[in-house]
Design brief:
- It is found in: Endoplasmic reticulum membrane.
- One of its GO terms (biological process) is attachment of GPI anchor to protein.
- It comes from Elsinoe australis.
- This protein has 14 helices and no strands.
- It has 299 residues and is an all-alpha fold.
- It has one domain.
- Helix 1 packs parallel to helix 4.
- The protein is globular.
- The two termini are 28 Å apart.
Length: 299
């Protein structure tokens, strides 16, 4: 389903044309089939299928919200984004970028009749808030208890589980003194959230690029990072395949990703099972993985 959503995003041509920008390299754009295949046959996607995590639902709803926004479907996009936020919380940071993308596509289709950004943003936020409230209310109706809020959202906000993963948070908070924990939780969340307005301001002529780069930020900086989000982000980069030949150090970046992908499980085994390593072994590899993901986003 995520591959189908990526297919729809590619066929919308939102990556090569907006109301304020038309790429001179649009004839070099990847086909929708190639983008979908880059997701389906990505090793990270295959490993995610084997692990069967719930993060695949958030990935699907994010790509679906983006696909609907690329076609100017306000209600459908708001609903899909609300569902993504309902399952994982952090997709809510995509709200500004999704508003900009949907408004841009509507403005491109009807320049004279398009609503102002303020009025459109209000409409989108109201729809998003309504769907989010309805989903939360439905959960309470089914469970007759508000404990799901702390179980689902409190887990991400407060990071009680420090099980090692491919992210950056767990090691930092293992070493953190408890008296500083609340402060740095706020710092880490504010850091991730700060990218949203900055990307919108910098890429206001290409809002789809802002959405995709925010997905890359999630893959690197979310509390419980996973390879499923990294695989989805790499597939999304194919939507901008027409600029690949302008990027630098591509071979170095992908070689480093391959290097860390192979050494990550090995160092984890040495630390957890063989007892011949320590946490620094595994964290150094995850740090390298995140650094190269950042490098790909920047390039």
């Amino acid at each position: 389903m995520s591959a189908n959503a990526l297919n729809q995003i590619t066929t919308s041509d939102a990556a090569v044309a907006s109301s304020f920008f038309i790429s001179p390299r649009r004839d070099r754009n990847w086909t929708s089939t190639a983008v979908a295949a880059s997701y389906l046959f990505n090793p990270f996607t295959i490993l995610t299928c084997l692990g069967r995590p719930t993060s695949v639902f958030a990935t699907y709803f994010i790509t679906l919200a983006t696909a609907k926004a690329c076609h100017g479907a306000v209600i459908s996009s708001a609903l899909a984004l609300a569902l993504a936020t309902y399952t994982s919380l952090h997709p809510g940071l995509l709200l500004p970028a999704m508003i900009a993308l949907c408004h841009d596509q509507l403005l491109q289709k009807s320049p004279k009749n398009g609503a102002s950004m303020g009025a459109f943003a209000t409409k989108f936020v109201i729809a998003f808030a309504t769907f989010s409230a309805a989903l939360t209310g439905l959960s309470y109706f089914l469970l007759q208890d508000w404990s799901f809020l702390s179980s689902v959202y409190g887990t991400r906000l407060l990071l009680p589980d420090l099980t090692p993963n491919v992210g950056l948070w767990w090691y930092f908070f293992i070493e953190m003194f408890d008296s500083f924990r609340s402060f740095f939780l706020g710092v880490f969340w504010i850091h991730m959230a700060s990218y949203s307005p900055v990307l919108i301001m910098r890429l206001k002529k290409q809002p789809l690029a802002a959405v995709i780069l925010m997905c890359g930020i999630f893959a690197i900086f979310q509390p419980y990072a996973n390879i499923g989000d990294a695989g989805a982000f790499m597939a999304m980069l194919g939507i901008y395949g027409h600029v690949f030949d302008m990027t630098r150090y591509t071979f170095t970046a992908f070689s480093a990703i391959l290097y860390t992908t192979l050494l990550g499980p090995a160092f984890y085994y040495l630390w957890i099972y063989a007892g011949s390593g320590n946490a620094n072994f595994f964290y150094a590899i995850t740090l390298m993985f995140s650094m190269q993901s950042s490098e790909m986003s920047g390039r």
